[in-house]
Input
Amino acid sequence: MIVFIGMDDTDNRESRGTGHLARAVAAQLSATYEFLGVVRHQLFFDPRVPYTKNNSSAAILLDVDRDTDLEDIFQQVKAFMLADFQPGSDPGLCVAAAVPEAVIRFGRRTKGDLVTQEEARQLAAQAGILLEGLGGTEGGVIGALAGVGLASSGEDGRYVQVGNLRQLSGLQPVSALLRAGIHHVQTQDGEPVTAGMVSTDKLRPARRGGVPVAVVQWAGDAWQPLKLD
Output
């Protein structure tokens, strides 16, 4: 069973970002659960939206037993987030396994439209999804629920951590990417890439088909990674 942990608005302009916090939380959880990755999701980039830097949320993906207590995971992450609370932040936390289509649609809406806390809270309550604001205005509940919806769709965002990918640097053969946790490498047109060297310093694979996919383009003598939202 896949568990999705959504986090948003955990930072201020001087602090570490939400993605950094999500990776720290994931490191703690990976001692108990099988860690599948941390995915960054780009939300509505608009001056009417109160965001810190880029208005992105993060989702942690875990593979757990079906009898795993989601409330226990929620409380573990909540405690970590509260211990690392940043003044001026408005954090939200969401944890879910069975994610209904309505939540996926909500996530997609947050990429190009204004939504409210009330809508997020009502939708989570109707779906039986754990959602809570952890300080400030609690505006992060919107991005936290959106992150869960978008991650569960399997077709949005990019991994900021998966497998051992962050241990790679410089030019690496395609086979090294596959060993590090990439499912496959392809061009933006969907053509498979099975040979050649790939620049890995800024490689952030897209979440497509529910797996990490490195999307690349040829640049003279090597494949260069593309960042897709």
Observations:
- DSSP finds six helices and twelve strands in the chain.
- The mean pLDDT is 93.
- The helical segments are 18-29, 70-83, 101-109, 117-127, 140-153, 174-180.
- Residues 13 and 52 are 6 Å apart (CA to CA).
